[in-house]
Design a protein that fits this description.
By secondary structure, the protein is α/β, with parallel strands linked by helices. It has 9 helices and 10 strands. The chain has helices at about 40-50, 70-75, 90-100, 105-120, 135-150, 165-185, 195-200, 220-225, 230-235, and strands spanning about 5-15, 15-25, 30-35, 55-60, 65, 75-80, 155-160, 185-190, 205-210, 210-215. It has a 6-stranded mixed sheet with strand order 6-7-8-3-9-10, sandwiched between helices. The protein has a 4-stranded antiparallel sheet with strand order 2-1-4-5, with helices on one face. Helix 3 crosses helix 4 and helix 4 crosses helix 5. The longest helix has 18 residues, at about 165-185. The protein is globular and about 50 Å long. The protein binds adenosine-5'-diphosphate and magnesium ion. Adenosine-5'-diphosphate (ADP) binds next to helix 1.
Length: about 240
């Protein structure tokens, strides 16, 4: 069970309030897609949930446990970034298991988890390669694999496909959909691609200037946008 409860969090950078009193409940096993214009605070919100950024006020609970002050490693949250920072000198296998190495997971367990993740992401034949020998799509699969091996209770993906060209992105979308079905873990997925949002989401969260404009199923938002901003955003081309 992994329910995320964000309770009236505020984030300020000096005099600038980026997120004013935002609340959101993400249910166990839900695939939640976060959309909104550039600079509206999507990445900041994910970094806050992951513990990479502090909050000015409010609470964050995971399965009821208050993790607002917890270190990133203690939260059981994994994050995949837009620019997947793989270690260039390490093999795919070591890249995927490195987080577990640091956490002093026993070697046989690391092997088992890495193999399991590689199987899910069809990376088994690439385990011996280095990042420089992979395509963009393969590299992103390794970055996702690295997150999976940690068996996170919450999985955050920040525009993971936006660095890929259009053709690769379509293929990776299928990959993400497969992963969603297989992992059935709680996920928050940031994208500016409307097709991605509409096809992948259980619920879509529309953000604007640090606030949530509307939360609903893709159909809800499409058929019953609550305001002009949501209508304009959902209706506009990607
Ligand atoms: P998004 O991911 O939706 O494009 P971000 O979360 O990256 O938006 O940024 C939200 C706002 O916070 C932007 O106005 C950005 O300039 C600001 N911001 C982000 N990080 C910092 C920082 N470290 N210091 C000051 N302002 C920041
Ligand atoms: Mg961002």
């Amino acid at each position: 069970m992994s329910t995320l409860s964000i309770e009236r969090i505020t984030k300020r950078y000096g005099a600038l309030t980026v997120i004013p009193e935002l609340s959101l409940l993400v249910r166990d096993g839900e695939f939640c897609v976060l959309v909104g214009p550039s600079g509206c605070g999507k990445s900041t919100l994910l970094r806050i949930i992951a513990g990479l950024e502090s909050i000015s006020s409010g609470r964050i609970r995971l399965d009821g446990e208050d993790v607002s002050e917890a270190e990133p490693i203690e939260r059981g949250v994994a994050m995949v970034f837009q620019s997947y920072a793989l270690y260039p000198h390490m093999t795919v296998e070591r890249n995927m298991g490195f987080g577990l190495e640091i956490a002093r997971t026993p070697r046989p367990d690391i092997r088992e988890r890495v193999t399991g993740a590689a199987e899910k992401l069809r990376l088994l034949r690439l385990l011996g390669r280095r990042p420089g020998e992979l395509s963009g799509g393969q590299r992103q699969r390794v970055a996702i694999g690295r997150a999976i091996t940690r068996k996170p209770r919450l999985f955050l993906l920040d525009e993971p496909l936006s660095n890929l060209d259009a053709a690769l992105r379509v293929g990776m979308r299928v990959e993400i959909a497969r992963l969603k079905a297989e992992l059935a873990s709680t996920m928050i997925y940031v994208t500016h691609d409307q097709v991605e949002a509409m096809t992948l989401a259980d619920r879509i969260v529309v953000m604007n200037a640090g606030r949530i404009e509307q939360v609903g199923s893709p159909l809800d938002l499409y058929e019953r946008p609550e305001n002009l901003f949501v209508a304009g955003f959902i209706g506009s081309p990607a």
